[in-house]
Design brief:
single chain, about 350 residues
Length: about 350
């Protein structure tokens, strides 16, 4: 009886340990990027505790200047304290957030890089509050009206951005070894990878343009540049390593572009998952709260009009200031001249109360 009880207890402990081990296994990784100044992230010093998807979502919310979910645990707050600087009033309010399926690790070059393992297989949400956040998708598909000439233009722009070449349905992108990755666009998987890369580059450039349009706005919203890259799943195994390098190079160049355009006030968060739909993080908001391209165009035109109005007000104020200054100067000179030319006699007002003998 005692032996049977011992065996049952041992089996239960063994099953529990295996379950805990499976739960603790890394299912991906997350990379936090910022410029060399290191204003928003802590330095990478030693190993860090694995992070959950909900904690990544909380980190993105905090960087945008939004309070994380009320269900955030003290342990999660402690983990984020190891990643983010403690000053709550000093946030970039701009995040480049990309999720990648099919990769478990990435090497991206930036000024300050923090890497963590992602554990569990849970989904999380980033709750966006109203019109305070401008969301720009960088994974939007090409327009249905985009013909072969349009596609050629997109791929040519991608080749120029990565110092490669494109001609006759063949996209050649340089590798660090001196060789090149040749993508034959007659193959569906390679075409999808190339088009997804071009969409990513085009989306980031569009976000930079939106940021410049809003640079003169009186109240600037927080900016979330986000996308989901899934083009690795169809590539042949022989292309995976080189395609991974090309993707890392693309992300590094895009973050450099964003860092320059945002003057360092932006943080990158790149989440890579081994399998699709693992650790997926979604944005939730009502439709009327999300900013569309049409709203951005209206904001851009209204900001242009407000800029013209502000210039007119400044011109009127400056003109009035100059006129007032000239009047005061002329009045002062006239007063001095009249005082200097006064006749030397007793003034009746000054000597009215003086008794003369």
């Amino acid at each position: 009886m005692a032996t049977r009880l011992f065996l049952n207890s041992f089996a239960l402990l063994l099953i529990s340990s295996l379950c805990l081990k499976a739960t603790a296994e890394s299912s991906g990784s997350v990379v936090f990027l910022e410029g060399p100044s290191g204003k928003y992230l802590r330095n990478q010093d030693g190993e860090r505790r694995p992070i959950l998807s909900s904690e990544i979502a909380g980190a993105v919310s905090i960087l945008l200047g939004i309070s994380p979910s009320s269900s955030f645990s003290p342990d999660s707050s402690s983990k984020l304290n190891e990643v983010l600087t403690p000053n709550p009033f000093y946030r970039p309010h701009a995040v480049f957030f990309v999720q990648v399926d099919g990769l478990d690790d990435m090497k991206i070059k930036a000024g300050n890089v923090l890497k963590d393992n992602v554990v569990g297989a849970s989904k999380a949400e980033i709750q966006l509050p109203g019109d305070d956040v401008l969301v720009t998708r960088v994974d939007e598909s090409l327009d249905s009206e985009c013909n072969s000439a349009c596609l050629d233009d997109q791929l040519t722009n991608l080749a120029n951005f990565l110092d490669g070449s494109y001609s006759d349905g063949k996209l050649s992108l340089p590798l660090s070894s001196g060789a090149s990755l040749d993508l034959h666009l007659s193959k569906e998987a390679e075409l999808e990878f190339a088009v997804s890369l071009s969409q990513l580059v085009r989306g980031v450039k569009r976000a930079v343009q939106f940021h410049q349009d809003l640079s003169n706005a009186v109240i600037k919203p927080s900016e979330l540049i986000t996308g989901h890259f899934t083009a690795f799943k169809g590539l042949e195994e022989k292309y995976t390593e080189n395609a991974n390098e090309i993707f890392e190079t693309t992300l590094s160049k895009l973050f450099d572009l964003l860092h320059q355009s945002y003057e360092g006030e932006i943080v990158g968060v790149i989440v890579s998952n081994k399998e699709a739909a693992t650790n997926k993080i979604e944005m939730t908001s009502s439709p009327k709260m999300m900013m569309s391209l049409r709203f951005l165009e209206e904001t851009s035109s209204s900001s242009d009009n407000s800029t013209i109005a502000e210039k007119e007000v400044k011109l009127v104020r400056k003109t009035l200031a100059w006129i007032t200054g000239i009047i005061l100067l002329v009045s002062t000179i006239m007063g001095v001249c009249m005082l200097m030319n006064m006749p030397i006699t007793r003034d009746t007002l000054l000597y009215s109360n003086v008794k003369l003998d």
